[in-house]
Structure formats: structure tokens, C-alpha cells
């Protein structure tokens, strides 16, 4: 079995043809970052989240690791609970993020830490992702990177690798920094696992670029990423999911939700192929 799984080839081609007919001015792209644009494994080892890179790198004061684990133990049950009302769960996630970000400020996070994390090479783009960045930039197709992870790490990654082009926007969680580069606060609203949808786009400059673009290619590695396209009206959505592990357990479920599922931590080449068809 290959690594590219397509739910309905005829329907997928219909969507591609519609986007091609309406032209590139009708298209934008929304993508998660961790384990979507980047690989889930590097040199055979599972890649850590942007937050885990900070924690496990031992960059902050000694008590940080213990305190961060204590926060996890406190709030993760709310994240995992199936019987909570959405409003209550969202409120608990925001409290978790606020306490965690303030803790990182208190424990000495700095811009130097973020730069060092990127230089360490522990984040790596998927094969074909560089071509995707270049194609979108060349045609000035807006790309929104929508992440519940650490936004300063994402933007530094883009900067160090030359992908911080004007068509790229990042909605994520960010610190504020003092003149000497120390984190001294955080920006709100927080993006967490359960509120990743395009509603917040209306409050950003990205909205002005995409409000008249009726078609979107959506890239994500979790079912929660499907919500990233909510909040704006779209005529065509091509949903591409990256199922990086547990293929036998989750492939059927992913195929019920995504148009295309790419397994085994494979590259972006099929995404590039779709974009090539649209751009012809």
C-alpha cells in the first residue's frame, strides 16, 4: 500500500478543476506547522513539540521542568475529557496556556533560546515543503500557518530558512520581549487545540488577503486541524491530512474526514502535484 490515500478520486479532481478554472487569485492555503509542514520524525526519533523543545533543552531555570509537568497534570484531564461542555474546556485550555506562558517568562525565556532551538536542527521541513513555500511565494498565494504551538519558534524557523515572505502569515502564540531580548509577557488571544478555526483570522491582516478567495487547500496532521477553515465562506476545500503513525488504527477515520491522507511521515510531493495542476 502506498503512502498517498485518496477518498474519492473523481471528487478530488472536480475540486482541482474548479480551482484551476477560477484561477490562482481564488486560492489560499492554510496549514498546521508541527508534524505537518515539518516531519514527525528526525533521524528515526520522534520530533518534540515546540514547547517540548524548550522544556527538554534545559534552557530555563531548574524548576521549570517540574512546574510544567505539574501544569500538565492539572489541566490535561480537561483536555482529554469527553464529557465537558466546549465552553468549559476552552476556558480551561486558556487558563493552562496563560499559566504556562507566564511561567516561561518567570523562568527566563529569551530570544537567544529561540534562536538556539532553530540552530539545533531539531525541526525539519518535509521533503517537498520547500518547493511548496517557493511556489506559493512566486504566485503570491497567501499561506496561513495556524498553530497552537510556540509562534516565536515558528517565525524564527521561517526567518532562518528564508521562508518569511510577504504572502506567509502566522497565527499562533507569541511572547513579548524587552529591549534586551528577555520575554516579559505574552500576546492574546491564545490558540489551543480546540479553537483553531478561522474566526480569529477576521482580526488579522491575513483576512484582507483572503476574504475574496473562495477556495482553500488545508493541511493538517490531526482531526482538530479541520476546524482551521471554519469562519470564512469557501466554495472548495481540499483537505489533506498527514497520518504520521498508527496508520492501521486511524487511516479509515482520517479518510472519512480528509480528501487525501498521506501516511508514514512522507513528503509534500503530492501536495506540490496538486498545486502544479492548479497553476497550469
Structural features, described:
This protein is of the alpha/beta class. The protein folds into two domains: 4-42 and 124-180 and 189-279, Rossmann fold (3-Layer(aba) Sandwich); 45-117, DNA polymerase, domain 1, CATH 1.10.150.340. 41% of the residues lie in helices and 18% in strands. The chain contains ten helices and eleven strands. It has helices spanning 9-22, 50-56, 63-80, 86-106, 111-119, 129-138, 151-160, 206-210, 247-257, 269-279; strands at 4-6, 27-31, 41-42, 45-46, 143-150, 168-173, 175-177, 183-186, 215-220, 236-243, 260-263. α6 packs parallel to α10 (269-279). It starts with a strand and ends with a helix.
Could you name the CATH homologous superfamily of the largest domain?
HAD superfamily/HAD-like
Strand order of the largest sheet: 1-11-10-9-2-5-6
> Which geometry do the CA atoms define?
globular
Order of helices and strands: EHEEEHHHHHEHEEEHEEHEH
CA gyration radius, whole angstroms: 19 Å
CATH architecture of the largest domain: 3-Layer(aba) Sandwich
Secondary-structure content class = alpha/beta
Can you tell me the CATH topology of the largest domain?
Rossmann fold
Strand content: 15-25%
Helical content class:
40-55%
- What is the count of β-strands? 11
Q: Overall mean pLDDT score?
A: 92
Euclidean distance between termini CA atoms:
29 Å
